[in-house]
Amino acid sequence: MKILTPNKVDSFFQLLTQKWDVRLPIVLTDGTRVISSLGDGSIALHGGAVSSKPTAAFFPQHSSVFISVNGLIQEQTTPGLPIFVLGFTDRDLECLRFIDRFFANGLRDDIYFTLRSNAVVAGISGYCGVNGALLQPSSGNCDLEFFWDGCRWLIIPYSGAGNEIVADLPDSAPPEAIEAFKKASTALPDENEKILRQASELLRADRVPDSFWSEIGDRCISCTGCNLACPTCTCFGVQDWRSSKTIERSRMWDSCQLDGFMREASGHNPLGTEALRTRRRIHHKLAADPEKWGDISCFLCGRCDKACPTGIGILAVAKELVARFA
Amino acid sequence: MKRTLTVCPYCGTGCTFYLVSDNGRLVGVEPSTTHPVSRGGLCIKGWNAFAFVHHPDRLTTPLIRRDGLLQAASWDDALNLVVEKLKGLQKNYGTDAVMFASSAKATNEENYLLMKLARAVFSTNNIDHCARLCHSSTVTGLAETFGSGAMTNSISCFDQTDLILVIGSNTTEQHPLIGSRILNAVRSGTQLIVADNRRIRLARQADLHLRHKNGSDVALLHGIMHVIIAEDLAEEKFISSRTENYAALTESVAEWTPERAATITGLEATEIIAAARLFASAERAMIVYSMGITQHSHGVDNVRCIASLAMLTGNVGRPGTGVNPLRGQNNVQGGCDMGALPDLYSGYQKVSDPQLREKFASSWGLKSLPATPGLPLTRAMNAATEGQLKAMFIMGENPVISDPDQRHAVATLQNLELLVVQDIFLTETAALADIVLPAACYAEKDGTFTSTERRIQRLQKAVEPPGEARADWEIICRIAERAGYPGMRYSTTSEIMEEIATLTPIYGGINHERLDPHGLQWPCPDIDHPGTPLLHVDGFTRGLGRFSPVDHRLSAEQTDEAYPFVLTTGRTYFHWHTGSMTRRTHLLNREEPHSFIELHPDDAATLGVRNRDELLVSSRRGRLKTQARVTEMVIPGVVFMPFHFAEGAANTLTNNVLDPESSIPEFKVCAVQVEKLP
Ligand code: SF4
Ligand code: SF4
Predict the structure, then answer these.
(1) Domain boundaries defined on chain A
(2) Is the preceding peptide bond at B523 cis, omega within 30 degrees of 0?
(3) Atom 3 (ligand 1) nearest CA
(4) Which residue in B157, B203, B230, B311 has its CB near the most CB atoms, within 10 A?
(5) pLDDT of B182 above 80
């Protein structure tokens, strides 16, 4: 276990930039906290999960697929420094695990893994949540983890790459700090997880009537925010931009809340109403994914509930559903 | 990776977000979590606002028409030609032979500069912008009744109100982050009346949905006011202490019994009575309206009635109340504030006032400025048809798609001796131009936008413009320079704002630094002023609120045997106006890829039409092909079309008849025939 004192934080990450494309929680000019590069704002490790999904480091909103000039596909430019990204909470790491598996499954997604393969992922935990609330330590499914014990960062490396990153830091965690970490690691029962499980069971038992979904769907303004904010949403659309000599193919985050997502070439749409689409979004995370992957693919990161302008993020809907049909 | 805080370029809600860029290319958008309006959310247009910026169709070099074709040219040649031709035409035909069209998509600084260019450099008041087509009725109607033509309250008021009357606004589609507030308010117990015959999303949540006939708003509002007065529900204290001319209102609505209003609106008298009682019973009631009220040949009258209803019930000057015209474009409020209007300088200061003329002239280093108000945009188009107007300089507008009666608009533009278009894409209008100037888009420049709640916010440059494209303000300054005017040299847009602040009392306390991070709401008269979330608190801007009674007038074109359907036009959620940006945004264009017409199932059955059948729609002005969308969104006898699509352009059909006072076209009512194509 390594130690990083608050006064060394800036210089530690500054030094890392020599070898890594460093991304970490920063606070932007208006107080929004996101994961971004050093220099884009001041480092803001405290404050809990950042508003934008940390998985965007590997699956950005928009990325190039290929460029062809005069009919010839251009070689992709050599990749820059490998990515170091700090800021995954325990829940975010679960999300990352889920999409790592998804993108590796079957036809491995090479665009994702170009960024992901050599990256170092750092978790964040400890008493650095909103107003010092505890963020649950991870189960070790990252390269290293930054744990705030109230006075300093304890850094726990889990992989070779993680070890390499903190090799030069002092190795002298006091016993009470280690104790704090152990205590924090004993999982607390989470009321929201219980609700999500209950909602999942209700859906799988087909106990939720269509009228519920019309009611919820009537409140969806199709902003797509729930999908775009979600770290386990992996759908993308593909576009081609053509000019006289070049074709630029790129992909961008898509959303199953959109009519065009499932519209058939005939114009017919099997998911032609917000009610059906909202049902599908929630059903996919809580009923379909558990069947395919053995996991509910919502890890309660809270982002869709914050992004949804009309209060129908997944937890809000799960709560309503459980209150009415359990 | 870089993140630049900026303002959404689409609607007037004024959400802010960060543009995410990597190596000079935009790769995404991240909402601001602290912004008081967007609060971590955005609508789909905001989420995709980065996606058109690097499109290969962007204009990258000036173009000059040679041998009938637009050909690449240097900035020097293009700008010299612009100045030479404009001056030449003015010499031959008088200074008022040219018209400048500014843009509600451009910044405050750019609108101010274009109006300065027109007035100071080219000595004409012929300057206007697309507010003429959307809220000119509001500017006229509310200036007369309240003394200020802007939204009286703030968006946060939706969280503090007991009742919301939405009339002629499809808020969840056109101001989505205001619509979502309304949905949330309703969930927490706020009552909702929707007066709109389309079954918009808000209508599904409404306590009362009034599906009155198109163009019958005056009758509806008169009926409601009649009931309020007859049942003694009016707010007497407010009326006697804060308003004038009430007797005239009572007289004018006296005959508008709910039964009479019912015959004209097509509603039941009981619906009108219920609406009146519900509205009057609310302690705090907000009225929200938009184009459904303004875009009529009696648009100003509609606005007057709305102002009267608010005053009659004492719903002005308190949180959770007010008359709230939702301004459509991101900066249409600012375009008006900056005096891109034929009769007003920035801050609604009258051109006809000699003292104000003197103030602007001396600040701009001139002996005098033209005194007679210029032409409104819509009348300028008519003047061009008739040959009095010879040249138009259009910045960031696309009248070929957005103006009523497309055939007339195209013929008019072709009739000009000079058409200059400054834009980011080669729009349908730019394609007709003699000279095209390539502009930077919102992501490529600095400045400010003013949202519908009068919130002035900073736009910040995230990436460089493509090729030789330049910010509108830089182009305008270079034109002024070439025309021999030395008074338009600025190195930054904040210097322009400093000048605006000295000349514009409502912006007196504005400078760019003060606007971080979430802007200020005007009036903001001095540097210590915190801005004004609520207007007319202790008194109206004009002193007493004025009841302005109106007479009921029918829409200009009525249905008949040859044209039996009422056509009403508008927008969809996924596109913006003439589509130059949204139709080049993959997800948005995938959602609504082509022109369509909404048709009630009963009408569809009569015509033997099924969903997605191809239809021929014709009016007295023209005809087009479009796709049927059979839906109960519309009432029988009424069809709806969005105007975004160049192929199947709704404005081929619309009627170029204008409100006599505001010169707004009647986009909301015309008569058409609908036929199934074999
Ligand atoms: S965030 Fe909410 S309103 Fe937006 S698409 Fe998702 S469910 Fe609909
Ligand atoms: S609501 Fe308006 S301002 Fe907000 S993101 Fe949507 S288009 Fe932009």
Answers:
(1) 2-61+73-184, 191-325
(2) yes
(3) A220
(4) B311
(5) yes
Q: Measured from the CA of A219, which atom of ligand 1 is nearest? A: 3
Q: Which residues have CB under 8 Å from B241's CB, separation 6+? A: none
User: What distance in angstroms lies between residue A225's CA and the mean position of ligand 1's atoms?
Assistant: 6
| A188: confidence class by pLDDT, cuts 50, 70, 90 | low
Q: Which of B33, B55, B590 is opposite residue A32, by nearest beta carbon?
A: B33
Q: Give me ligand 2 centre to Cα B324, in Å.
A: 17
Tens digit of each residue's pLDDT (9 = 90 or more) over B76-106: 999 999 999 999 999 999 999 999 999 999 9
- Ligand 2 atom with least separation from CA of B177: 1
pLDDT of A246 higher than 70 = yes
Peptide bond into B517 cis (omega under 30): yes
Tell me the three state secondary structure of residue B189: coil
Write down the mean pLDDT value for chain A: 92
Cβ-Cβ contacts under 8 Å, B466 against chain A? none
Q: What's the pTM value of the predicted model, to 2 decimals?
A: 0.96
For residue B409, how many other CB atoms are within 10 A of its CB? 24
**pLDDT computed for residue A176 by the predictor:** 77
Domain ranges within chain B, ordered by starting residue: 63-128+331-456+467-521, 136-326, 565-676
pLDDT in tens, A270-300: 999 999 999 999 999 999 999 988 889 999 9
Average pLDDT of chain B, as a whole number:
96
Q: How far is B591 from chain A (nearest CA, A)?
A: 5
CA of B30 to the centre of ligand 2 (A): 13
Query: Probe ligand 1: pick from A215, A218, A227, A257, max atoms within 8 Å of CB?
Result: A257
Instruction: Return the CATH class of domain B63-128+331-456+467-521.
Output: alpha beta
Which range (B189-193, B359-363, B420-424, B661-665) has the least confidence? B661-665
Percent of chain B past pLDDT 70, that is, above it, reads: 100
The answer to whether A269 and A263 are in contact (CB under 8 A) is yes
Note whether A128 and A180 are within 8 A (CB). Answer: no
- Which residues between 86 and 115 in chain A have a beta carbon less than 8 angstroms from any beta carbon of chain B? none
pLDDT tens per residue, range B585-605: 999 999 999 999 999 999 999
Compute the radius of gyration of chain A from its Cα atoms: 21
Asked if A221 and B183 come within 8 Å (Cβ–Cβ), the reply is yes
CB contact under 8 A, B2 and A37: yes
Per CATH, domain B136-326 is 3.40.228.10 = yes
Of A28, A40, A267, the CB nearest to B612: A267
- Cα separation, A146 vs A123, in Å, equals 6
A125, A105 in Cβ contact below 8 A? no
| Owner of token pair 């015209």 | B325
User: Six-digit token pair at B410?
Assistant: 């195209």
pLDDT tens track for B232-272: 999 999 999 999 999 999 999 999 999 999 999 999 999 99
Answer whether A224 contacts ligand 1 (Cβ < 6 A).
yes
CATH of B565-676 among 2.60.120.10, 2.40.40.20, 3.60.40.10, 2.30.42.10: 2.40.40.20
Torsion angle in degrees (nearest 10) through CA of B618, B623, B624, B630? 0
List, in sequence order, the alpha helices (H) in B541-627: 586-591, 601-607
Task: For residue A228, give the nearest of A112, A309, A125 by alpha carbon.
Answer: A309
Name the residue among B1, B587, B590 with its Cβ closest to that of A37.
B1
Confidence grade of residue B539 (pLDDT, cut at 50, 70, 90): very high
Find the B173 Cα to ligand 2 centroid distance in Å: 10
Write the pLDDT tens digit of every residue in B445-483: 999 999 999 999 999 999 999 999 999 999 999 999 999
Task: Give the minimum alpha-carbon distance from B330 to chain A in angstroms, rounded to a whole number.
Answer: 18
Residue B194 contacts A where some CB pair is shorter than 8 Å? no
How many angstroms from the chain centroid is the CA of residue A108?
Answer: 19
